[in-house]
Specification:
- The structure is a homodimer.
- Helix content of chain A is about 45%, strand content about 25%.
- Chain A has about 230 residues and is of the alpha+beta class.
- Chain A folds into 2 domains: about 130 residues, Jelly Rolls; about 80 residues, Arc Repressor Mutant, subunit A, CATH 1.10.10.
- In chain A, the strands form 3 sheets. A 4-stranded antiparallel sheet of chain A has the order 1-8-3-6. In chain A, strands 2-7-4-5 form a 4-stranded antiparallel sheet.
- Chain B binds a DNA duplex (30 and 30 nucleotides) through helix 7.
DNA sequence: CGCTATATTGAAAGCGGTCAATGCCTGTGG
DNA sequence: CCACAGGCATTGACCGCTTTCAATATAGCG
């Protein structure tokens, strides 16, 4: 468990910045979990019991219909939190969370989280910012899904991945997609085939190159103008 | 200004439940505004300065692209809050807010709101719940936009309006849409013509009746099963 | 009472989805 | 080490839903 506190301090999570006493408190609240790729952390409709800080790896949040249609709502990376709905009054998870690769998570029990929040107003303030940021991100996604074509969605997706990198490789921006074509399609609200076709078209037009999970953006300017 | 405090108490807002002293505090923070239909409260990209509680009327939040495509993110009714992004670190509104009818708003300056939040942990807790609820709502919308057909979106929209009413009129549920076909289309991420055509089809199939802003859901069960 | 915005309908074109076949890549067992 | 199975990626053909463009109809408003 000591490791959890260590990681809370080192990591760029909302828990960073707590006082030593608070961390001692936190120590009792955190539970480490190591999960393999493809494991379900919690499931839509399941009774809600807490949140999970992603310490390493990646987690996708999604909803699925009875017919199997799936929409990926969000991909969480290191330092982000799954199950924020633990802060709500309602008591069931509204979506499913699943690891996309081997991941380490810190579990925060809801009751203890609530207690911690009521003790520490600075932590509340941080959570408010995290939630408000998440709303903004969600609004942006609603906008993209509601108004953009498949090509525009894909271009936007590739550029959002590129935004993380500040080291433009010699000729372009190198990306490694940590997900399948299927996942990409379900993030963008298009079919897998369309996703693949759009990528192929981008390659034909020399906007991108590479293959499989390793892609290179060769022409950012043109990608921005896709139409 | 006294009226603001009165309304804060009476209204079902997050400000309800504050102690008398806190309300006295709030009194200085609130500013009333009466706006006509179609007035812009704040604009995407504009420097952020505060939030607005909707006291009466309705407010739509939307984003718009350079080409004029518009996506309505959310419609706020009495008691809800526009400009929640005031809680974030970033300093610009991420979307535009505009009244959909004559509305009364209470303005909450950001700095004072922050102060109030730091003074009152219960208020922080309420805001956390409001924000978490909003995230859930946004996720649901992402799911609908990403996976559903025009008909399904419309059916879902009509039923969500019906959900507010508990008095099923003799033969069906009476709805009065407080918005144009254009607005509906931009909420669902479809074209105006498609929105109208879907409504016409529903009428042909006797799922709904009525015209203009007054519609009646005649067959909820069938509407739920729409394709 | 005309004017302008909104609502409605038609026809044609295009984007994206579905179905189907094939290729590719990896892990596994013989 | 190789063959094979299963999953993922890719491409083609075709179809249907949505959009777009255009023409009216209708309604709210000054």
């Amino acid at each position: 468990m000591k490791g959890c506190v260590q990681c809370a301090v080192r990591m760029n999570t909302i828990l960073a910045g707590l006082t030593p006493e608070e961390l001692a408190e936190v120590e009792e609240l955190l539970v480490h979990q190591q999960l393999k790729k493809g494991e379900v952390i919690f499931c839509e409709g399941e009774k809600m019991h807490g949140s999970y800080i992603v310490k390493s790896g990646a987690v996708k949040l999604y909803k699925r219909s009875r017919e199997g249609e799936r929409q990926i709502l969000r991909v969480l990376k290191e330092g982000e939190i799954a199950g924020l709905c633990a802060l709500r009054a309602k008591s069931n998870y509204g979506h499913t969370a699943e690891t996309m690769e081997k991941s380490i998570l810190c579990y925060l029990n809801k009751n203890k989280l609530d207690k911690l929040l009521s003790l520490n107003e600075d932590l509340s303030s941080k959570f408010l910012k995290v939630l408000a940021d998440e709303i903004d991100r969600a609004y942006e996604k609603i906008y993209l899904l509601g108004t953009k074509s498949a090509k525009e969605k894909m271009a936007n997706f590739l550029m959002s991945l590129a935004a993380g990198k500040d080291e433009p490789v010699e000729d372009g921006i190198e990306l490694r997609l940590a997900m399948s074509r299927d996942d990409i399609a379900d993030m963008l609200g298009i079919s897998t085939e369309t996703a693949i076709r759009v990528l192929s078209e981008f390659k034909d037009k020399d906007l991108i190159s590479g293959q499989g999970k390793y892609l290179i953006i060769d022409d950012v300017d043109e990608l921005e103008k896709v139409d």
